[in-house]
Each structure stands twice: as structure tokens, then as C-alpha cells.
Amino acid sequence: MIGVQTLDEFIIRRQTDFPYATGELSRLLRNIALASKIVNREVNKAGLVDVLGTTGFTNVQGEEVKKLDLLANKTFIASLELGGQCCGVASEENEEFIAFEAESSRKGGYVVAIDPLDGSSNIDVNVSVGTIFSIYRRVSSPEGLCKAEDFLQKGSEQAGAGYVIYGSSTMLVYTTGHGVNGFTLDPSIGEFCLSHPDMTIPQDGKTYSVNTGNFYDFPESVKEYIKYCKERGQQTNSPYSARYIGSMVADVHRNLIIGGIYIYPSLNGFPDGKIRLVYECNPMSFIVEQAGGMATDGSRRILDIEPRELHQRTPIFLGSSEMVSKAKEFFDKGTK
Ligand code: P6P
Q1: Which helix (H) or strand (E) segment is 25 a member of?
Q2: How far is the CA of 15 from the centre of ligand 1 (A)?
């Protein structure tokens, strides 16, 4: 296929842009891409084989674990351990992080935090789901196993981040701090091919993504912002649209392409909201900032938050900079 640039070729080409790159991060990214192809195969045939439905277990989040959640979790962990560049994984599905002990991986220079299958409640109804991953250089001594401190670095320290969306087509979107690039899986050749080079999010947008079913549990400032979004059609000739899929990867991917804001705020009884900092908010915020957007917890930059523990949650306002800034105005007004 003339003119097609595969993910492998892209990674290798970009690596030569950084003469001191050891190639470890490149190989780690390729391991993640391989695992996502395996997960994609299972997600795509979910309706046909016995991988739908739940396992009967609940995870550390208290959420019921779907069969595909477990399959995805095992696939990514196995691929990362085999690769050797990653010395440990923190997953939404595991209460504690996993420190690899095999001689071939325990000295790896990176750790990965991952939500192996985000939005999995949508699987049984055939709505897009995704994988979200965050990559850090380890800070612990390579003489020992990886430690919690490797995973509890600020989001601004990420070496890389990305997501895979298993939708009408399967795409892998990632950044290593030098812009954002999107690759679409061509099943006929089994390769991710560059389809969205140098992705940038529109500075402004007309789409807001929030679960308004929680409206009466939102802080007053969020209620006021949502009313502002609803009234746009009355006050201007550019009304906003509400689009909420219930799958963060799908909502953020759409907003990354056409502009928009994704909000999961604090709720009555849930002061930190629902979305996890380490393996959802940080990687998505790194991507959106690299694409020219913004990500806050209402006021603070997400990537500046010092993680305290692996599964901690944070409110998140993520997307087009004009929209996130406007929401921040309401937040700042509400906290005066
Ligand atoms: P709610 C999926 O469980 C998820 O983590 C995100 O992908 C999604 O945006 C959000 O939670 C949906 O949560 O409470 O609106 O159903």
C-alpha cells in the first residue's frame, strides 16, 4: 500500500529524531500496540463468543468485572512483561501494582499505568470502549523491583500516554511529548497506519459531555456552567450540543477531533468525582494538552496534581481551551 506509514515505521522514524533515545520506549509502545490488536480481536467478536457478561466478581473500584475486562487486563500485562522495557504495571483491575520479577523485565526502565478496558459497561450494548495508558520512566533503583513511587509521579512527568478506541474503526492515539498522532488499524494487513498526523484540538467547540443525570448532585458552579451551555442557543446563533457516550475514551476522542469539553465533576457524597487520576485523567490530560487543549480539576492543572495513592479520583474538566477556561471562570466565581 503506497504511502501508508505503519505505527512501527513511524515510531522508528521518530526515534531517529532523538539520537539519545535507547529505543526502549519505542519497543514498549509496540508492545502496547500488539496487545491492543489482540484485545480488538476479542472486542470485535464479543457478541459471538462467550466473552460478554460479567465474571461475578467486583474490582477494587466496587464495579462488576466484565469477562472482557479480565481478558484485556491479562493481555496488556503479559505483553508488557514479555517486552522487557517495563518493570511493572498498575491497573484499574488490580488493587496493588504488579512488580515484574523475571530477570528479563525487572530492570526495565519504564512503568505503565493502565485502564485496560474503559467504559466496559458499554460492551454488552455494542458501544465504543477503550484502553487508556500512561508511561513513566522509573525513579526507583533498577537494582530492586519497581516501587509505588514509580507510579505516583505527577502527570507532568509522563514519558508517554495514549488510548485505543475500539469503535467503528480501531484507533491508537499517543504522545511522547512531541505532539499527538493517531493510527487506524487496517485489519486486512493487521497494522496500525498513520491516519491522523499531528492532531490538534480546536481551541473552541460546541459539544459538552457530562452526565446530566447527576445534575442535582453537582456543585453550584457546575450547574451554572451547564445552564450557560444550554442557554447558548437562546443567546447566540451557535448553540451547544450535549453528547455523552458513557465511555471517556469515545467522548474525549470525539472532542479531540471536533472540539468540546468532557466534565466529570465532584458530586454530593463523591467530592473527588469518579474518574481516576493516575490511569485515566493524567494520560488523557497529557494527550489533550499536547494537542493544544486544557485539563483541570476545575481550577488546578491536572498534570500538576501530586498523586497520593494509585486509585485516587479527581474531578476533571478536559478539552478545548476556551471551553475549559470558561468552565474555570464559573468554578472560580463559585469558590469566592
Ligand atoms: P457515569 C466508565 O465507567 C467511566 O470511567 C468513563 O469511561 C465514563 O466517561 C464514565 O465512567 C461514565 O460514568 O457515572 O456517567 O456512568
Answers
A1: helix 24-44
A2: 35
Task: Give the list of residues 6+ apart from residue 33 with CB closer than 8 angstroms, or none.
Answer: 7, 172, 183, 192
Could you tell me the distance, in angstroms and rounded to a whole number, from the CA of residue 160 to the centre of ligand 1?
Answer: 23
d(CA 64, CA 60): 10
Contact 290, 235 (CB under 8 A): no
Question: Grid coordinates representing 104?
Answer: 528479563
What is the value of pTM for the model shown? 0.94
Q: Quick check: 277 pLDDT over 80?
A: yes
Find out whether the beta carbon of 211 lies less than 6 Å from any atom of ligand 1.
yes
- Sketch out the chain's domains with CATH numbers: 7-196 (3.30.540.10), 207-334 (3.40.190.80)
Mean pLDDT value across the chain: 92
The Å distance, Cα 248 to ligand 1 centre, comes to 6
Confidence category of residue 165, pLDDT binned at 50, 70, 90? very high
For the Cβ of 206 lying below 6 angstroms from any atom of ligand 1, the answer is no
What pLDDT digit, counting tens, does each position of 99-141 carry? 999 999 999 999 999 999 998 878 878 899 999 999 999 999 9
Cβ atoms 91, 114 nearer than 8 A: yes
Distance CA 336, CA 227 (A): 19
| Nearest residue (CA) to ligand 1, atom 10 | 246
Residue with cell 451547544: 240
